[in-house]
Amino acid sequence: MRVFFINKSYLPSQTPSGIKKLRKRELESLRGEGTDEDEQRKSSDRIYAYDKYNDLDGEDHETTTEEPYYVPRDEAFSSVKSDDFEKKKLLSAIHGAIPLLMASKDSNLQRQIFLVKGRGIRARQTLAGLNPLSIQLVTEWPLKSKLDPKYGPLESAITNEIVEKQIDRVMTVEEAIKNKKLFIIDYHDLLLPYVKEVRKLEGTTLYGSRTLFFLREDDTLMPIAIELTRPVIDTEPHWRHVFTPSTDATNLWLWRLAKVYVLAHDSGYHQFISHWLRTHCCMEPYIIAANRQLSAMHPIYKLLRPHFRYTMEINAFARQSLINAEGIIESGFFPRRYSMELSSAAYDQLWRFDQEALPADLIRRGMAVEDQTAEHGVKLTIEDYPMKMVFKPMLSFKHGGQKSEQKATETRKTKTAVNFGQYDYAAYFPNRPTIARTNVPIENFAPTEFEKLMRKPEDELLKCFPSQFQAIMVMIVLDMLSTHSPDEEYIGDKLEPVWSEEKQVEAIFNMFKA
């Protein structure tokens, strides 16, 4: 028997005596107390129990459920969401199949001209793109690794001379750090231990990488150096090189190639760390704990519940088709079979509960500082220039004798979740390649490879990009994942029914909505 409670909130100590037993019985039911743990679970069950993700290796496993990926009934998609999800899968598959049917059997992309975006565009996306969670302020110099020295020199190859030359010697490195002008996306220590194993796999390669940015006077970022590193691998010695923007044709193409590697690293980091690990996987134990310990009448549960919506069902889908062995992630992203191992390593090294939310995450990365005089008690290290640049023309355009400032201000309040920008930013794969398939031509100073680069640099770039099949496969998935559901809920859209009897909450909601 299922119990439905009224919308009024009650703490355990305030619960009316007449429903205390019902509250207790409901939680016992959700915990599965009195049931056999080995009993096969049905799709209609509402039991929240802890378990391990031991079903990702592609093998058949014994299961205690009638379905291989059990999800409590209350966490399943609504009929509207489910129907839309299935339609989207079909439409995305058809959309992606058309170019495959028209293409040749060659796994490489046809030689054609791709839009090569400027440095400023790509730098802006580190703050306002898919993965704004990796960039951090440089506070120490020289840059140093924390890995075991067996992986190579601890000190970075990015020197003062390289940095100062790239910023036209407007200041020294020390001055740039003092003035908070240097920023970095540092995947060196996370990726370097996996380089040897990943390189044993066919159709992919890997480096440890660092990408350095300089904050210009107009508060826009400019990438100034990329360091790629390969550790000692069997008989091959340690190798590293710093790539910089250049007007020289050869070095310019090497710079473009270097960007492919770091963009692939960033795409992978976003997908299986920023996205899967931090917003899906790490949420599941909290969903289970909340449902096992907090009654539906508990005010904290009511606050949390909307943020849990569909997460467990989406995670089950991911385990079945995305992060499973030889699934989409392993087929289309650079670590291949080591993707989930890398995600686990990131959880061990980087994840901390008390630093996941704002503003703690921004402060930890040096992207904001505590300032009680600023709005929300924090001040951004970099002004919100992406939004400023977008709305500058709008603010200066007069319509009906008035500037559009008020409307722009309202629009600024709307922020797009990291998930929903996936197709917009990454479906065009040169902007967000997910895998780099070839080594940089100058790695082993092979004359043949370097000659190919000199003769047809575009061909070498295309060989490095994902294959046509990989690009389309990822595009289909991103299209499916980044679509808003017809029953999507938006903050401030309407008051949730569970708060209908809380007049104070309703008053605050109306203030927020206004």
UniProtKB/TrEMBL annotation:
Keywords: Dioxygenase, Fatty acid biosynthesis, Fatty acid metabolism, Iron, Lipid biosynthesis, Lipid metabolism, Metal-binding, Oxidoreductase, Oxylipin biosynthesis. Residues 25-48 have a biased composition (Basic and acidic residues). One of its GO terms (biological process) is lipid oxidation. Residues 9-386, 417-514 form the Lipoxygenase domain. InterPro entries: LipOase (IPR000907), LipOase_C (IPR013819), LipOase_C_sf (IPR036226), LipOase_CS (IPR020834), LipOase_Fe_BS (IPR020833), LipOase_plant (IPR001246). It is an enzyme of class 1 (oxidoreductase). Gene3D superfamilies: 3.10.450.60, Lipoxygenase-1, Domain 2, Lipoxygenase-1, Domain 5. Its EC number is 1.13.11.-. Pathway: Lipid metabolism; oxylipin biosynthesis. Residues 12-48 are annotated as: Disordered. SUPFAM superfamilies: Lipoxigenase. It comes from the Eukaryota. GO terms for molecular function: metal ion binding; oxidoreductase activity, acting on single donors with incorporation of molecular oxygen, incorporation of two atoms of oxygen. The keyword Lipoprotein does not apply. Its cofactor is Fe cation. Pfam families: Lipoxygenase. The keyword Transcription regulation does not apply. Plant lipoxygenase may be involved in a number of diverse aspects of plant physiology including growth and development, pest resistance, and senescence or responses to wounding. Belongs to the lipoxygenase family. This is Lipoxygenase. It comes from Thalictrum thalictroides. The lineage of its organism: Eukaryota, Viridiplantae, Streptophyta, Embryophyta, Tracheophyta.
